[in-house]
Amino acid sequence: MIEQRQFHRVKLTERCTLAYLNTNYQGELENISLNGAVIGFDGNVPIPLGAICLLTVHLKGEASPLRLNAEVIHSSLTSLGMRFVPLDEYGQNCLVHLVESFTTEPDKLATELERIKWHIANYLRAS
């Protein structure tokens, strides 16, 4: 199988809630990257591929949770793979800070952030 990930994953086990169509599913964040996350559940979660959900991560020691919009891109019996959909500036900054805090590969993260800045700069030049 060909590796499709563009960003390295950071192992992070935190309680989370996934909201979809007025239903909240309690789960546990298994890992997170600048692009998405994997969430584990005790049982099957009937959320279809392509669904947009609100992911709320309850971080230990933080007063308020991290809230991110995410699309379901992978589903198994007890986990969902999520891709973050466009975040506002505050959400982006929170996500970067979270990944920076837990990464074991800071050089790789710095390279990923530079790549993102390059893409944004090229997009803005083309606009």
Shape: globular
Instruction: Give the helix proportion (percent range).
Output: 25-40%
Distance between the termini: 36 Å
The average pLDDT is 87
- Secondary structure: number of strands: 6
Helix-strand topology string: EEEEEEHH
How many separate structural domains? 1
CATH homologous superfamily caption:
predicted glycosyltransferase like domains
Polypeptide structure, described:
- By secondary structure, the chain is α+β, with helices and mostly antiparallel strands.
- It has a single domain, classed as predicted glycosyltransferase like domains (Thrombin, subunit H, Beta Barrel), CATH 2.40.10.220.
- Helices cover 28% and strands 39% of the residues.
- The protein is built from two helices and six strands.
- The protein has helices spanning 89-102, 106-126, and strands at residues 10-20, 23-32, 36-40, 52-58, 66-75, 79-84.
- The protein has a six-stranded antiparallel beta barrel with strand order 1-2-3-6-5-4.
- It is globular, with a radius of gyration of 15 Å.
